[in-house]
C-alpha cells in the first residue's frame, strides 16, 4: 500500500504571518486602526520576505488600507 501523494503545500511560517496580516487588516478596520494596522503591516512584510510572495505584500497593503479606512470611519462617526 502506497502513501497518498499530496500536492498541497505545507503551512509555513510565511503563510501564517500572511494569514494573520489579513486578519489584522480586518481588525484594523473594525476596532483599532493604528494597533492592528501596524501589526498587519509588519506581519505582511515578514511574510513577503520569508517567501510568501506576492500574498504577503498584498496582506501588508490590505492592512494599511484597513487602517486608513478605519481612521476615516471612526472620525466620521465620532466627529
**Which residues form runs of ≥5 with pLDDT under 50?**
none
Q: What pattern of helices and strands is seen along the backbone?
A: HHH
Shape descriptor reads elongated
Oligomeric assembly: single chain
Would you give an account of this structure?
The structure is a single chain. The longest helix has 24 residues, at 55-78. With 79 residues, the chain is mostly helical. It has one domain (21-78). The protein contains 3 helices and no strands. The chain starts with 12 loop residues before the first helix and ends with a helix. Helices cover 76% and strands 0% of the residues. α1 runs antiparallel to α2, α1 (13-30) packs parallel to α3 and α2 (33-50) runs antiparallel to α3. The radius of gyration is 16 Å and the shape is elongated.
Jot down its keywords.
single chain, mainly alpha, 79 residues
Condensed summary:
This protein has helices at 13-30, 33-50, 55-78.
Sequence-ordered SSE layout with sheet pairings:
Blueprint lengths: L12 H18 L2 H18 L4 H24 L1
Helix pairs in contact: 1-2, 1-3, 2-3
